[in-house]
Amino acid sequence: MEELYAEAFHYRELGDECYRAKDYLGAISNYDRAIQLAPDYVLAYENRGFAFFQLRQFDNALEDYNACLRLFGDRASVYWKRALVHYKCRRYDQAIADYAVSFDLEPPEPWLYYTRGETYFFKGDYQMAIVDYSRTLEVDEDNPCVYLRRGRAYAAVGDYDRALSDLNKTIRLDASDIAYKIRAKVYRAKGMTSLAEADEERAQQLAEQPG
Question: Is the distance from CB of 39 to CB of 26 less than 8 angstroms?
């Protein structure tokens, strides 16, 4: 039995090496072998699930995460990974429920508040999205992507001044075409037509730049 588990561990490590090299099919093949040798190898199921996720094989990923939870129910990382699958499949309530369990089991990394914020946003719960984006920014205060998302959420609830504040920070950190497009919409909502037109022109210029 010990020899089987040692061999299973070897294949799981090979799978991890393939995963890090973004060879997801190779990773899955090695995780398959590990699971054949040790059918209760929770980490092999979990890691294979994430490889399936990267290939957008969401049903297979979900099956592996469910297997993990049957074998070992209180595993925070499996719950948030399953939440990502539900999010991609637009099952937002199920994703939020899984995030809640994960966060109860183990304090989350800040970026997980961001991904849950995205889930709330696309569910249409903009206020909760703002709360989660803000939690991310407490420890990652110079992240233009999160300012952009929070600015978009503020705009969605009609808080245009806070939206502009966040979008201005976004543009100072990373002047992308999408940031200008969103800020243009906020300017138009505030009746600031000339500023909106200037941002739309700048967004078009950036979108047309090569690379």
Answer: no
